[in-house]
Write a structure and sequence with these properties.
It is a single chain. It is built from eight helices and 27 strands. The chain folds into two domains: 8-130 and 328-383, no CATH class; 136-313, P-loop containing nucleotide triphosphate hydrolases (Rossmann fold), CATH 3.40.50.300. Helix 6 runs antiparallel to helix 7 (271-290). With 385 residues, the protein is α/β, with parallel strands linked by helices.
């Protein structure tokens, strides 16, 4: 039987007949939200908001595995139970980029992770406004021309697409800058973040870890661009199994003979290296075609024709509109407030003598989710007379 959490549990306060509000002001207090026969207790720890589960039928306490980046502590917060296994957490006194969070306790993603890990799981995501197109995962064997296709796309639409910055545990080389070429990190740190579900895919190469973090992809989307991931088939398989909703494209050569000719034309590799790449390519092509990972297969027989097919898949053929993706924004809330809920709308009313502001959050268009961003919050800020 697990022990109760170190933080103290405040009674749940009723905010509206269709929702719940809760607040915590003291340093060690916590809030509790009931979901079925369980209470999810959210409380301040030293570095973040912690989560404990109280099973009311057995009176047991469970410490779940927490995926994603947990919110930092704050002086107070409210919690609202939403549909689809989500709890909305509203932080008091936090900046716009840190005020709205979602805790997933019974979403499809959490249920899958619970089954895979064999333990109780919850997952955090940051709530933001703005929309984001699906990231694009491009895979294919070495020499197939996928790098050239991506370069053409980036050149024609520089404001619409962006690359995520990968993580690695190797040391920086000459002229490499942290956060530009790679996010350079310690192996123990990256291993923990992989365990915490913060990476879409990773691999060990010559004793060093390389990988793509969820946050790195979200940062590209936050800037109003569509993220492109150029990864191998195994990496694509990992991304497909993750929470990231992406478009998966596999680029094939017209034949193995043509691929061999392209590899030899490079003049940069030994015969042994060429034969190894050809063996790997044959295995990748078979898996790319039969695995069910990829939504689309492109054959790069003619580069220009293949590029036009790629643009068509991404909705960029014909009269291409200007980039209408929005850079995300946080939500600027009153420092002191009370919370109520009516269907898909959350009303945050400023309290105190001033009481000049009311913010309404429309959550009917939410998309994405843990462990990255929950997007699509529509904000209506009203200045009261």
């Amino acid at each position: 039987m697990g022990e109760a959490p170190a933080f103290l549990v405040d009674p749940l306060l009723t905010g509206h007949s269709n929702g719940f509000g809760a607040k915590s002001e003291s340093e060690h207090s916590a809030i509790s939200v009931d979901v079925g026969d369980r209470s999810y207790v959210i409380g301040r720890t030293h570095k973040a908001l912690g989560v404990q589960i109280h099973d009311k039928s057995s009176n047991d306490w469970v410490s779940p595995t927490v995926l994603g980046t947990s919110p930092k502590p704050c002086k107070g917060y409210s919690a609202v139970l939403l549909k689809e296994g989500r709890i909305l957490v509203i932080k008091k006194g936090s900046g716009p980029d840190d005020s709205i969070w979602f805790l997933e306790v019974d979403t499809p993603y959490v249920r899958v992770q619970k089954k895979l890990l064999g333990v109780e799981v919850v997952a955090w995501s940051k709530g933001v406004t703005g929309i984001a197109e699906k990231p694009v995962v491009v895979s294919g064997p070495s020499g197939v021309g996928k790098g050239t296709l991506i370069s053409m796309l980036m050149k024609e639409f520089p404001s619409m697409f962006g690359f995520s910055v990968s993580h690695t545990t190797r040391a920086p080389r000459n002229m490499e800058k942290n956060g530009v070429h790679y996010h350079f990190t310690e192996k123990s740190v990256m291993e923990k973040e992989i365990k915490d579900g913060k990476f879409l895919e990773f691999a060990s190469v010559h004793g060093n870890l390389y990988g793509t973090s969820i946050e790195a992809v979200e940062v590209v989307a936050d800037s109003g661009k569509r993220c492109i991931l150029d990864i191998d088939v195994q990496g694509a398989r990992s991304v497909r199994a993750s929470s990231l909703d992406a478009i998966f494209i596999f680029v094939c050569p017209p034949s193995m003979e043509e691929l061999e000719d392209r590899l030899r034309a490079r003049g940069t590799e030994t015969e042994e290296q060429i034969q190894k790449r050809l063996r790997n390519a044959d295995a990748e092509i078979k898996e790319g075609k039969s695995s069910g990972i990829f939504d689309h297969i492109l054959y790069n027989d003619n580069l220009e024709e293949c590029y036009e097919s790629l643009k068509k898949l991404l909705g960029l053929d014909g009269n291409v509109p200007f980039n209408n993706l929005e850079a995300v924004e946080g939500v600027n809330l009153p420092a002191e407030h009370k919370v109520s809920k009516m269907e898909n709308k959350i009303t945050i009313q400023e309290t105190g003598k001033a009481a000049e502001k009311r913010v309404v959050l429309d959550l009917s268009l939410l998309n994405g989710g843990a462990p990255g961003r929950t997007r699509g919050i529509v904000v209506d800020a009203i200045e009261l007379s």
